[in-house]
Design a protein that fits this description.
The protein is 62% helix and 10% strand. By secondary structure, the protein is of the alpha+beta class. The chain has two domains: 209 residues, no CATH class; 73 residues, Alpha-Beta Plaits (2-Layer Sandwich), CATH 3.30.70.120. It is elongated, with a radius of gyration of 24 Å.
Length: 301
Amino acid sequence: MLARVRGILPKGHHLRARGRDYATIALGTLLTAVALDCFLVPGQLAAGGASGLATIVYYLSERTLGYAIPVGVQTFVMNALLMIPVFRAGGLRYAARTVFGIVTLSLFTDALAPVLPPLAGDEAMLTAVWGGLVSGLGLGIAFRVGGNTGGTDIVAQLLARRTSISVGSWMLIVDSAIVIASVPLFTVKNALCAAITILITSIVIDYVSDGPSTERAAWIISARHREISAAVMTDLGRGCTLFTAQGGYTGESRPVLFVILSRREIGDLKRIIGAIDRDAIVAISDMHETFGEGFKEMGVQ
């Protein structure tokens, strides 16, 4: 199917799209490097991942060797050792974007470190919040176009294949271990703030990479589904899709309406259903992105 699409689109389109994707990844890694150089590293916050471990080694080498090993160099070396599984698991396209993300993040981190002012002040909590926001924004931008910066997600994937523990759980375990390992070198307060940074980063990554949850999907089970469908199409201007479902207990066929609408239209939908059938069963869920007629155009970020 992908080959057919490529055959339809002109060659220049693919090159421009690929160039935009790599430029987007570079922008994302640039912002992530700013978060490291301005907030996390000077604030002594080892907020998980390869950069968190590198932050620990940075200060440990400075205290023991009298020379701080650059964070960018460390993250590059750490991720280089993990690239073989990436090539095997994700294919050439995924691996190329991962390598690009790793290299640009490493270069930006060390190149900007002498230039950017350390914005980490005496308030560790404020540093943690801003570090999480900026790094989450950068990583989310990179992830949105299929980029990757390596780190604990690769380790978590390798461990998950050999155990019954999920990738998400392994990421939490690995990141927690890095945060705990920072306690003897820094302080318990810094470790707690680093944990907050991880939480904020993950939330912002989801928001940026998946998009804000501006649409809702409603599943409606009602004997008066035709009246509800007509009211939704007339009053809200939204289309309805009708499914036929089967009751698990009775085995009887039941019509189910499926509607996608904006967040502000949920109240109107509830009023419509309540006026027609107060016994209707309604389930409403978040939709991160919706493409098509009446919503965002396919391919527009």
